[in-house]
Design goal:
Nucleotidyltransferase, domain 5; 6-stranded mixed beta sheet; 5 domains; 16 helices; 35 strands; 9-stranded mixed beta sheet
Length: about 650
Amino acid sequence: MTGSSVGVDVGGTFTDVVSIDDDGDVVARKVLSTPTDQSDGVIAGLRALGIPPAQCARMVHGTTVATNTLLERNGARVVLCATEGATSLLELRRQERASLYDLTRHHPPALVPPDRCIAVPERLDARGVVRALTRGGAEYVASRVGELHPECVAVALLHSYRDPSHEHELAQALHSSLGGVDVILSSDVLPEIREYERTATTVAEAYLRPRVARYLSQLADRLKADGFPAPAVMTSAGGMRSAGEAARSAASLALSGPAGGVVGAAAVLRLAGFADALTIDIGGTSADAGLITGGKPLVESGGDVAGVPIALPRVLIDTVSAGGGSIGWTDAGGALRVGPRSAGVRPGPAAFGLGGVNATITDAHIVLGRIQARRMSGGITLDIAAARRAIEALAGKLGATVERTATAMIAAADAAMARALRRVSVERGVDPRRCVLVAFGGGGGLHACGLADQLAIRTILVPPFSGVLSALGLAMAPERREGMVSVMLSTEALGASDVAALARQLSQRAGAADDPEVTREWWARTRYVGQGHELDVPFTAGDDGASIARRFTEDHHKRLGFSLDRPVEIVSSRHAVTGQAREPRLRRAGGSEWSANSMLDTNAPLDVRISGLAVVTLADSSMLVAQDWTARALPIGGWLLEKNAG
């Protein structure tokens, strides 16, 4: 590829834009996000970058359109076709409470209400057809669906992961009756067991697809008008797809932006010589915790987004409402709380001078002297007096000093983020103390030491371009395609030839060509017979069932602390084909002097060591070196912070 690769990450407060040219040189810019139309912020960011459109070879976009659609519940009007007797799956869920001990908490409403769930007169079980779907039955269902005027139709019939014939027959009738209305089949979206997750994921795809497609089409038109190429889009699994392909797999974009951050963090981690890390991406609205093992982001199958199960591969991310714009407030008992409400772009933190009056985490850092720059990225001039007034108002309600209130706000945010970091590590058998903490985003460097102290982590990496690392990860992102099939076989029944055949089937489903430059990976979703949960176990085309079982047993013991003497089965398998990443050339310029009154980043000489307490103003964020920590400049840019001995 000749020309610059551009990454555009749309966040709740800022839109970050990064380009990597043919030589690997990196240029970064920040502009304010435009919540009413994200494409406005994308175009503004590209213009701020100053790259001639003819020199832009590709533009990779991290979008929150899918996530926001689920949060705001403003997606398409969907009709669900489900097997007769199984039309209440979305309402029943798994019959768990929203909160075990809080009876006032409820799950969010299903994306499709019961009156838009149509019963299909058919039935398959695990052994075959119990009740055949007749032509008349399919046409009757199609007429019922047409009466409800759907924008999109989701079809999720029992056991279609094993036999999709009934779904295909119904789809033909729906297409004949409804014309251009999109019909989405669960056997295409998620060919796996577990009817609820398969149904919910298929419904999410139908709910998101029209809005995501409209947004990407509109963005492509605007980019074309300015001479830029059509956008590619980051998927939740950490790879990019063309806009056309992404629009046909909208549910896979639910974690589009955050995935880019973990991809960028993994690349910088490898360059710094480390393999295992926890990541924390602290933005204006939220903080995203992730896990890197062996130099690669951990990709898992499934998880909730805004209360909606989406059982598709995704980079492991745990999001909490603790960002720079998170608002501090007092509850009915007079206790200090922080978030989940955020000041967003407008009115924003009080210090931004855009009308905000509530105390935010950003205001707290300013009051404590941890943000010393007078101007921030995006053209924001900080109003320090306004930040202090906002904290003073909150402090008055608490009967505390301004400094104590600001410190308590930051501690509350740190506690929420530390819990998220424990969930992505301890709950997966990973000891945080053996990991590096990679802290990035606008607030990563400010909270890194506090989080590391809570988790007993002794090494922190604040990467180069830390404030825009998600956009850098997008610019680097390789193309990635995935395929998935149901297996449901004991490992004892799988010889080497069977595993090789499975690998070939997955390659065909992923559309893998004989390209020597791509990387191919296979995973088996594996469990002990009778278990309700699986682990993803990597395998190769040369393995047999016994070797997969051994690897599963080792992983099971490592993660859960025990193993069982019972048969192992493979529920399903997936395959990823990954292209070449665009590698940046990261280096520190050096040559400038450093003093306590002239905090700097990219020009710091390599022999600089900063012992806390100190604040370093980075090019696109700030970094706090806490007491008992020492920071040193890295050759690749960025900083390595280490806990002092003792």
